[in-house]
Design brief:
Blueprint lengths: L6 E7 L3 H4 L19 E9 L8 E9 H9 L3 H7 L11 H8 L9 H17 L7 H9 L3 H20 L8 H8 L5 H21 L8 H16 L9 H17 L3
Parallel strand pairs: 1-3
Antiparallel strand pairs: 2-3
Helix pairs in contact: 5-7, 5-9, 7-8, 7-9
Pfam family, one: RlaP
Length: about 260
């Protein structure tokens, strides 16, 4: 089946400091002419003719501004969460900042993952059940198996992953690989997929209720991780952000000095 599939490559980058902190170049967000800021770059079906021993391989590429990447991960976007938990052996390149993010990847997980993953799974079920004529490579899948097994694969994958999130607060993307391979080989019928989906959805609603994960992300901690990453890359950020706690502490000390002086 690999000859019918593009390989997805995800990553993030840190753009110039003025892109992340536009006030450094005098821009006031929402006022006047706004300078376009890089958020993401995507390109599909990029062919590497030298890959696969000369057989070639097609890639779907996506590179995100680190700020947008953090936001999507904090929202538990399934594609971004997958990229965080990709096995080390599948990581093509990682900087020290990349390692910092991966070391703290469980920080992004919360119970809201269930709603995100369920929504994506419903979308895949809808596409799998669609009566629209398939196009491109999907025509071959439907002709061979009677339905689009690639959509079915994603339905089960999403449910497996969110089950791990809710029960363990972690994801092993390789745990159910044999089950997923069997779906891609057409060993499950479309009816099998739908019955599994209905049963799993009921079970996951219970897991969601009982999960020990926080209901929402810890935005303050995730923001601090983002700032640590940016400081590691740019250097000192004192000209970019105000440390509210430090400022408040400074005001307290000034007030104490003033009061001690009798003013």
């Amino acid at each position: 089946m690999s000859d019918l599939s593009d390989t997805d490559l995800y990553g993030f980058c840190i753009p110039e400091k003025e892109t992340v902190f536009p006030h450094l170049r005098g821009e006031i967000p929402g006022f006047g002419n706004q300078i376009p800021r890089f958020e993401q770059w995507q390109e599909h079906h990029v062919l590497d003719k030298s890959a696969g021993g000369g057989k070639g391989r097609s890639y779907d590429l996506a590179i995100y501004n680190i700020v947008k990447y953090f936001q999507l991960c904090m929202e538990n976007n399934p594609n971004m969460i997958d990229s965080l938990f990709t096995p080390r052996t599948c990581v093509l390149h990682s900087t020290e900042v990349g390692n910092m993010v991966r070391e703290n990847r469980r920080l992004f997980l919360h119970k809201g993952a269930w709603h995100k993953f369920k929504g994506y799974a419903y979308s895949q079920v809808h596409k799998m059940n669609s009566k629209d004529a398939p196009v491109g490579k999907r025509q071959e899948l439907v002709a061979q198996f009677g339905y689009d097994v690639k959509y079915a694969y994603h339905v089960i994958r999403l449910l497996d992953e969110v089950e791990q999130i809710l029960t363990e607060g972690d994801i092993d993307l390789q745990r159910n690989r044999e089950q997923l391979k069997s779906i891609r080989r057409g060993e499950w019928t479309q009816e099998d997929i739908l019955k599994h989906f209905e049963r799993k959805e009921r079970d996951l609603e219970t897991l969601y209720t009982n999960s020990k994960l926080p209901h929402a992300p810890d935005e303050a901690q995730i923001k601090q991780l983002l700032l640590n990453c940016l400081e590691h890359h740019y250097g000192n950020l004192s000209d970019c952000v105000v440390n509210v706690d430090a400022a408040a502490d400074a005001l307290r000390r000034i007030r104490a000095i003033v009061e001690q002086a009798g003013y």
